[in-house]
UniProtKB/TrEMBL annotation:
GO BP term, pick one: methionine biosynthetic process
NCBIfam families linked to this entry: PRK09485.1
Pathway(s): Amino-acid biosynthesis; L-methionine biosynthesis via de novo pathway
Taxonomic lineage from the root: Eukaryota, Metazoa, Ecdysozoa, Arthropoda, Hexapoda
Domain Hcy-binding: 1-290
Pfam families per the UniProt record, alphabetical: S-methyl_trans
One MF annotation (Gene Ontology) recorded for this entry: S-adenosylmethionine-homocysteine S-methyltransferase activity
Organism: Oryctes borbonicus
SUPFAM superfamilies: Homocysteine S-methyltransferase
Name of the molecule in the record: Hcy-binding domain-containing protein
InterPro entries linked to this entry: HCY_dom (IPR003726), HCY_dom_sf (IPR036589), Hcy_S-methyltransferase (IPR051486)
Length: 297
């Protein structure tokens, strides 16, 4: 991992160290059996980097592109070091988190900024970060943890400016098992969003939710759509609760994500994985469950 430390002399020191950790993390995910690896650009934006790193817009754009190169480097290096494993290369997916993640006021978890932010403001914020990911050659975009319908609809329109890229769209959801974070009905929103851009969407669903909520959110989502089903994706967190004083709690009360996998696959969900507080061991177990499920069919 020292390679980038030595060669990449124009990068600020803290980013160089971060790069090493990130490369190591990507290698861990790959070795655990991940078919898809997501860049660490969830919160990355041109304006955010310009403001907080005191760099130019061009440098900020290049930094987002570099994040894709790091994933590719990790994949190539892993394949070189472990040729005997002969694993297919994972898809490199560019993470596009919500506009609210740039506001640092927790509104990304509720979508409340949708009422006070114009669609144009969101569009202008997203456009260059998406352009950088696409230019760097990601295989797919992850429009993820989106809390409000208005931003999702804008993103599905915006990616038409990049007609050769495909994407998945994943919402963040409330605890009620029926709504996205901003309160709109999940199933209606999923169907409506898919119909807005079926040519570029590989899947629509949810991420970073408790696994126990998946069934009620996704059940019968494609009822009555036999001719035109929405391809579905879910990658939940571990199901733990977050407490401001104690951090993440109640892990012992959570069923591991992999125990849900056969049922989710039975429900027609085709993309499954893990988000916050899921680890390489979870990836391996999820993969094993998916393989077992396939063998039984
Ligand atoms: Zn998460």
């Amino acid at each position: 991992m020292d390679f980038l430390l030595e060669k990449n002399t124009t990068t600020p020191p803290i980013l160089k160290i971060y790069v090493c950790e990130i490369l190591s993390l990507f290698c861990t995910s790959f070795s655990a059996g991940a078919d898809v690896i997501i860049t660490n650009t969830y919160q990355a934006s041109i304006s955010g980097f310009v403001q907080h790193l005191k760099i130019s817009e061009k440098e900020a754009y290049d930094l987002i592109m570099q994040s894709v190169h790091y994933v590719r480097t990790a994949c190539d290096r892993f394949a070189q070091e472990y040729p005997e494993l002969d694993q297919p290369k994972p898809l490199i997916v560019g993470s596009v988190g919500p506009y609210g993640a740039s506001l640092h006021d927790a509104s990304e978890y509720t979508g409340s900024y949708a009422a006070t932010t114009s669609v144009e403001t969101m569009r202008e914020w997203h456009r260059p970060r998406i352009a950088a990911l696409v230019e760097a050659g990601v295989d797919l975009l992850a429009l993820e943890t989106i809390p409000c319908r208005v931003e999702a609809e804008m993103l599905l329109d915006l990616i038409k400016e990049f007609p050769n890229i495909k994407a998945w769209l994943a919402f963040s959801c409330k605890q009620d098992g029926k709504s996205i974070a901003n309160g709109e009905n999940f199933q209606e929103t999923v169907r409506r969003c898919y119909d807005l851009n079926p040519r570029q969407l590989v899947a629509v669903g949810a991420n970073c939710l408790a696994p126990r909520l998946v069934e009620s959110l996704f059940k019968d989502i494609n009822k009555g759509r036999r001719q035109n089903p929405v391809p579905l994706i879910v990658y939940p967190n571990s199901g733990e609760s977050y407490n401001v004083e104690q951090g993440w709690i109640d892990r012992e009360k959570c069923e591991p994500v992999d125990t849900y996998i056969p049922h989710w696959l039975d429900m027609g969900i085709t993309w499954v994985g893990g988000c916050c507080r899921t680890y390489a061991t979870d990836v391996t177990r999820i993969k094993n469950q998916a393989k077992l499920w396939q063998c039984k069919r």
